[in-house]
Amino acid sequence: MPHLLRILPSLPDLTVAGAIDILLVASLIYQCLMVVRGTRAGHILAGILVMMALYGAALWAGLEALRSVLSFIVPYLGIAIIVLFQSEIRRTLARIGRKRWFGLARGFQAPESAGEILFAVELLAEKKIGALIVIERDIGLRTFVESGVRLDAHISRDLLLSIFQPGLPLHDGAVIVQKDHIAAAACFLPLTTNPALSVQLGTRHRAAIGITEEADCLTLVVSEETGRISVAAFGELNQGLSIHEVSERINRHFGVRRPTLMHIDEFAADIPLAPEPVGPAGRASEKAGHP
């Protein structure tokens, strides 16, 4: 208690700048915890915090033996954090970079040939042919493009159907779409390590989630077992979607507004009316009306 009374008078007065500083630090800590939440990195971070707490307790209690042992480990925790959390740090920096700070960030553009992609995905789902299509957004996927077979071809449904035909060399792996071009096929993607995912997910679905954890792309997956269509974005997977729902998610992901539906009442004068059917009675009335 005397130690606590000795510390309290030394605390500075809380000002507006101090309150803002505390809120920013709390927000930063919260974002860091959200990045490692539900991953194996969370347990590693807990172990590092326990070691730091033990080191602080050894200094406070005067446990020289424990302090001397931990003094050889604690100085290297900074390097250990960089090595162990390199994927989480990269993901956090990418998340910070893609935020629209003060509305100054550039807008995103959906691929112009999204209709061709949707048509190919629908046909692949009907035939139960496995497929994995990655649509690039703002963060470049050059590293993953170089891992596959470079194509630089214009998007077409026939080309996508040909790529994913079973037995062909480009069937395995992912197709990466950049704007309106297929950049590469048979690309290797990182697998997600999220332990909270179902064990029933195959390699294709885990790769779809893994690439969205690294970048802000959108991934379309067709299951070769069930023919279900799934969409992955920002580390989350939505399964069993219809083509209409997939189109909605593409528009939402790339910030494309839905086209407004034109009602017939708005342009009634521009729509020609169909002639009314004329029966025998109508013909008789016409003859009677005209000399």
How would you characterize the overall build of this protein?
With 291 residues, the protein is α+β, with helices and mostly antiparallel strands. It has two domains: 83 residues, no CATH class; 140 residues, DNA integrity scanning protein, DisA, N-terminal domain (YojJ-like (1, 3-Layer(aba) Sandwich). It has twelve helices and seven strands. Strand 6 and strand 7 form a beta hairpin. It starts with a helix and ends with a helix.
Cα end-to-end separation = 118 Å
Number of strands: 7
Order of helices and strands: HHHHHHHEHEHEEHEEEHH
Strand content: 5-15%
What can be said about this structure in brief?
The chain is of the alpha+beta class and 291 residues long.
Task: List key phrases describing it.
alpha+beta, single chain, 12 helices, 291 residues, 7 strands
What's the topology here?
Blueprint: H1 2-7, H2 16-36, H3 40-61, H4 64-70, H5 77-84, H6 86-97, H7 114-127, E1 131-135, H8 142-145, E2 149-154, H9 157-163, E3 174-178, E4 181-187, H10 203-214, E5 218-222, E6 229-233, E7 236-241, H11 243-253, H12 280-289
Parallel strand pairs: 1-3
Antiparallel strand pairs: 1-5, 2-4, 3-4, 5-6, 6-7
Helix pairs in contact: 3-4, 7-9, 7-11
